[in-house]
């Protein structure tokens, strides 16, 4: 069984990405799984080419440094020819109505006089990502579930029209992971692309900066360390971060910590130690471009080998070869 997951280089990898997904990929992934950096998806809105290239390399380095099997890691644009060919075939299988009803397109295009066409069509590119690699399961949140459903529809339609080529994937809910909230505004998730980085801990932040951000985290004026996410979201966020880094229960931790200062210090040190080896290995990879290039080339070639027969069959059956 093949599972496929991706991370988009819309910003530096942050603590929520690491605790919620990357660490799990490293611990639970198999050599059959596919983890890729979706740099093509990052082009659906205005972007800086140099920054996109830099963030893509950084994310690749973080995944390898975190222990994700290098055989399973690839950069999306390294398969741009294969993906471009299949995306066109799938666009000729998809209807405009199916693309236009995607919730993310409606939300991101609302109130804007002009949006890139790729914002409309990228769910078809996502379907190509999934179908090309023969993925059976795609762990996603609710915001991406509709896109996986589109991939299912297109797989079935192609198979029924031209012949059996694609596995029909299904969306799965990933295992429960840390719910990391923004330190400055715990009402929202920590995000790579947040405009204000004060509430976001990035994996490559130096230890002193990590400590400073966590010490400044928003709590409340109750002065009582309790695990009550609805009533004390800032305190609960710090407890959940500490729990994720130490393997303990946030309720248990709340009962052993006296005040907010102690909580922040404990969370800061736990995060620093959790990220230290990843940060150090990532920096080593970024300082050794040849080693990172070798890992990237190997991942790209393995992904091509995996998808070649599937793409050839799709092109042949649809009349192109």
Can you walk me through this structure?
With 321 residues, the protein is mainly alpha-helical. Helices cover 55% and strands 5% of the residues. It has helices spanning 15-28, 49-65, 80-91, 96-100, 103-109, 117-132, 142-162, 207-215, 233-246, 250-254, 260-286, 289-317; strands at residues 4-7, 34-37, 73-75, 137-139, 170-172. The chain has a three-stranded parallel sheet. A two-stranded parallel sheet has the order 4-5. β4, α7 (142-162) and β5 (170-172) form a beta-alpha-beta unit. It starts with a strand and ends with a helix.
Entry summary:
Helix content is 55%, strand content 5%. It has 321 residues and is mainly alpha-helical.
SSE succession: EHEHEHHHHEHEHHHHH
Percent range for β-strand residues: 5-15%
* C-alpha geometry: globular
Helix content: 40-55%
Q: Radius of gyration, rounded?
A: 21 Å
Side-by-side strand order of the widest sheet: 1-2-3
List the uncertain runs.
none
The total strand number stands at: 5
Distance between the termini: 29 Å
| Tally of separate helices | 12
